[in-house]
Amino acid sequence: MASSLDIPVCPLYISAVVLDFSKSKKNVESAEVRISSMSPTPINGWAGKAARQTFSPPMKLSLEDTLSLHVRYKTWFGNKHEDIVVEPADIFQKCNAGERQEYNMVHKKITIVVELSGNPTTEQTEQFVSSDESPELLPTTDEIFRKCPQFRILVIGKTGVGKSSLINHAFGVQNATASHDKPGEVSIDHEFTSLQNKRFVLHDSKGFEPGEKDNLKVVRDFIDRRRAMPDLKNKLHAIWLCFEIPRAGGRLLETGVEQFLTSKHKGELGNIPIIAVFTKYDTLLDRVERTLDKPSIKGLSKAAIQDLIKKHAEDKLQEVCVAPLEKFAKSAVPHVTVSTNGNHEETLTHLIKTTEELVRNHVGADASVMTSVAQRVDPGLKIKASIEVGKRKYWKALASSIPFKKRSMWDCLHVLHADIVNVWNFQDPHGYLCSPEFRTLMTNMVNELDVGPTADSNKTLSFGLTIVGTIATIVSALSGPAAPIVVPIAASVVIASWVYEVYEESRPALQRFMKYIIDLTLVLQTLVLVAGNQELSRKAIKLAVKSYHESPMSGEVHNRIQEHDRQLTLWQRANRDSLDQLVTLLESYNISAEEVSSLRGRLPDVDLLSDEPWGT
């Protein structure tokens, strides 16, 4: 297979430019994007030593254009400026060869990321054309990200209630930028973002401090303005109203909060989902445990004591939190109790799932997909969102899908691959998960396991325990924690000859599509276990691939797909039944956030921060 493709003649479309100078000593004061004769566009979205400017509609970039960033620095001797040139030819070449959605370059320790989208005019059509008429199949996520590139959330709460910790854990970032203004100086319009997770944007409010009557008006005006904005990407998708669970005798609601909740109950704030978040649940459990009557629990098992503590905690919550909330909000504001400390991952999962469901019901399907994409708590929601995205277009008729006509199998697999990777939203600044090498690994896995049944197709293994056991075996065989991971399936050359064939309606094609989708999904779920929310390295990805490939899980998955194929009696039923089977298999292997935390505790130590080549 050629290592790169010819430069395409069709233009690219820039949806955003990111400037990260966190590793540079330069004090960047301002920057602007310049494309040929177009007017310069200032970069306005600043967050610490980084900035991000989105473009709607995306800016067209042709091969003949010039592209640069005009950066102004502040020094002791006054202002200096520099033009950082970005070569369009390099963007076209690398994006085509790697088939990525973004282009990365580093200039004097300043990282520049050019985010790309499909043609905004052709993305909106459902008409499919042949390979001769279109240069590529467009991922469904391209269209979703064009309409709604980020999950937009407003978090309201006093200083100290745990907002930053909540955001860090929910969206898998470190040191989420939050407002540190004094009470009353609310910068609610400011957009806080993170380069570690570009799929959410945060608005922060100190809430309704005593004596600050203007705060309520500021928040209500902000909500009204966002409601009036026509584009989904600019609308507010959800609000988390945060309260620290008060101690005995403490008051939960200030006057401003009571008025805010009453406004929601009366419908004055519209359909925007508002969720009351009671934080620091672990602290409440500790207080309850300290006040237990020791003689009354004598002889009880540890599990029975924990159940009793939770029962007393729920009673206390009902008294000091839920009852005051419902007095003013009635049923208009659901509540969730959370903790970011200790083994309480199920509380964050409940918050994320509640938010996603409300967004789906009151904002829209695209916004709910972005809720699932942005969150980094629950793998199950990632699988659910992948199914939602797949069903919109490419999964609906895997065996006879019109958009795959006259396409190579490699191109067909690419669009399926891109949608799944985009939904899982790992911290992957180098684009490893979209690289030809990783795609080759996944394709060769389908080909190598494309054999007869090896296990009982009616038996379902436990995904988590099976994978963790395989990881432990692989790591124990290494010469040391820093030893390279050797993947037995080639990452440089596609072994499967069918990949180069033009797609044709057939049962083998259907099987391969199903295997690829499930294999990729379960490898990414394994990667959640292995790497968590840290920046991905090729070593971490290779460990995830090797662990899934060598576990009994991969053979079981392929065997169940083949058994399903043998049971199909009417080809015309294959599409519908296969989609149902695909969804069933994906859902049967998904693991919860609680399982992820428990399973990680069983993983052996291995150095995944240091990187290594694919072919090691």
The computed structural class is alpha/beta
Write down how many β-strands occur, each being a DSSP E stretch of 2 or more residues.
15
Unreliable stretches, pLDDT < 50, 5 or more residues?
1-8, 121-135, 178-184, 451-457
Inertia-based shape: globular
Mean pLDDT score:
82
Strand fraction: 15-25%
Quaternary structure: single chain
- How many strands, which pairing sense, and closed or not: the largest β-sheet? 6 strands, mixed
Helix content: 40-55%
- Total number of helices: 19
In the sheet with the most strands, the strands line up as 11-12-10-13-14-15
Distance between the termini: 19 Å
Q: Provide the gyration radius in Å.
A: 26 Å
Concise summary:
By secondary structure, this protein is an alpha/beta fold. The chain has helices at residues 88-98, 140-147, 163-171, 214-228, 255-265, 281-290, 294-297, 302-329, 345-362, 365-374, 379-392, 409-424, 436-448, 463-476, 507-531, 538-550, 552-567, 574-588, 593-600, and strands at 12-20, 28-35, 41-42, 45-46, 50-61, 67-75, 78-86, 102-107, 110-117, 151-156, 192-194, 197-205, 238-244, 274-279, 335-337.
